[in-house]
Amino acid sequence: MCIRCCDVFVLNSSFIFRGFISFLGEKISMKDTLKPTLNLLDAVLINIGAIIGAGIFIVTGITAGFAGSSMIFSMLIAALTASFTALSFASLTSWLPTEGSVYEYGYRLISPEAGFLGGWMWLISNILTGSAVSLGFAHYLNVVFNVPLKVLATVLCAVFTVINYYGIRHSAQINDLIVSLKIMILIFFIALGFLHFNIENVLPFTPSSGVLYGAYYIFFAYGGFARVAMVAEEIKEPEKNIPKAILISIGVSTFIYLLVGVAALGLVGADRLSSSGAPLSEAISVTNNGLAVAIVSTGGMLATASVLLTSILGVSRLAFSMSRKGDLPLILSKLHTRYNSPYVSIIAVGFIMSVFILFFDLTKILTMSTFAMIFYYIIGNVSALRLRDTNLPRYIPVIGLLTCLILLSFSLLISLNSFIIGSIILMLGAVYFRLFVHREDKPNQITGA
User: Fold this and answer.
1) Average of pLDDT values for 345-372?
2) Model confidence at 145, in pLDDT bands (50, 70, 90)?
3) Per-residue b/e over 323-336, b at no fewer than 16 CB within 10 Å?
């Protein structure tokens, strides 16, 4: 009897929820489409803005703590790992350039549930990342403005939400400027670092068992290499420009990461890098140049700014895509009549990030973001493996899948709590799908497989 009552409750809850979604979305015209306004350079800079972010300014120290002076090997392993998965993404976006990326590919090439869970984990991961990045940005500004940290972080989140509200063209222009300045600051760091390079800080240069652990954390710094695929419908000639943007951004980022890593090691060595929460600022401080420290610290702020900007951009576009398919409330797919931006999704994402900032301490669950990100890339590699209309060699997505599974196993070794939290969120997504999304009339749509 109790079981039957539970069944009735679930069915009624599902019916009511779907009715509510239909009510929210009934006046939304599904003819609304996003317009392609971005060129190849914009696409490359969106990706570089997502890759070369807060990670290189923070994760360098964590990696040095695991791998010592051989953290360069960690960077190379992470770059190679990211490259295989990046090739899978390039193949997928060349086949079908569409907003939503792996959510759409998993839906079409594996199953609706696989696509939904990939999108679900990506949304959660990037909302948390955006909230944490807002707090990180606020830590820098708090030195100048004596304002409560969480209030300042919430204001920053609101500012970048407004920037995204006014359309991707405005967001891309601001992102182009931020990324250009950030790269210039990193080049400045590299040049000054090699001028004060001390070879004794790098020796002995021998690989250690911590290299693979370091690669796990550095992989987080590469995590944005597929961000441009989230805005595929807003890029001109996406079937050509998106694969190019992914591969170019991986190459540029790897080159910069290696130079930054070598310069930082040569300045202070692995021990001092690992003991600092701001390793690049710590490294450049040995030059006794206050202006140089200020410039590098500014780079840290710009890095967090670009990640926050592209996080809101990416999450809002994925929410738009999931809403358009009916997996989230249809109201989230409404486009602004003037700016052609999914403004309801943007406002919702900014609001949720602000709630996390105000009521939660996010620092302890940042590694969960990597867990969710790797799960998302697993779905991407499996999707590429199912795709037959491609010139991509079959071993590429297989290697990408295997390396992601290895990294996922490292997340269990590095942080059991984060692995458990990530698994719980994944299960919640599965429950949500089964209760409110799954429909018998929604078959597996394998197209081109």
Assistant:
1) 76
2) low
3) bbbbbbbbbbbbbe
pLDDT tens digits, residue range 231-257? 777 778 877 788 888 888 888 888 988
Helix (H, G, I), strand (E, B) or coil at 38: strand
Note the pLDDT tens digit of each residue in 175-191: 778 778 888 888 999 99
Beta bridge partners of 38: 235
User: Residue 281: which region, alpha, beta or left (left: phi > 0; alpha: psi -120 to 50)?
Assistant: alpha
Strand partners, 235: 38
So what's the pLDDT on residue 364? 59
Q: Is 235 helix (H, G, I), strand (E, B) or coil?
A: strand
Q: How far apart are CA 37 and CA 48, in angstroms?
A: 18
CATH of 38-437, one of 1.20.1740.10, 3.40.50.1820, 2.60.40.10, 1.20.1050.10: 1.20.1740.10
How far separated are the first and last CA of the chain, in Å rounded? 45
**If you average pLDDT over residues 78-96, what whole number do you get?**
85
For residue 424, give Cα distances in angstroms to 111, 199, 251, 405, 412. Answer: 21, 46, 35, 18, 14
Q: Which of 127, 448, 138 is nearest to 312 (CA)?
A: 127
Tokens representing 28 are 């939304």
Per DSSP, 285 falls in state G
- Residue 409 near residue 348 (C-beta atoms within 8 A): no
- Both tokens of 442, joined, read 């929604």
Residues with Cβ within 8 Å of 21's Cβ and at least 6 positions away in sequence, in order, are 326, 329, 330
> Which residues make Cβ contacts (< 8 Å) with residue 438, sequence separation at least 6?
112, 113
What does the block give as tokens for 255?
């080159």
Nearest to 258, CA basis, from 40, 54, 63: 63
Whether the per-residue pLDDT at 266 is higher than 80: the answer is: yes
Contacts of 402 (CB under 8 A, 6+ apart): none
CA atoms within 13 A on the CB side of 96: 21
CA distance 120 to 100: 11
Question: What are the boundaries of each domain within the chain?
Answer: 38-437
pLDDT on residue 15: 38
User: Are 345 and 368 in contact, with CB atoms under 8 Å apart?
Assistant: no
Indicate whether 171 pLDDT > 60: yes
The pTM is what? 0.75
Please choose, from the candidates 135, 199, 184, the residue with its C-alpha nearest in 3D space to the C-alpha of residue 296.
184
Within 8 A by CB and 6+ apart from 203, the residues are: 69
Picking from 179, 190, 144, the residue whose alpha carbon sits closest to that of residue 47 is: 179
Q: Report angle CA 173, 175, 178 to the nearest 5 degrees.
A: 115
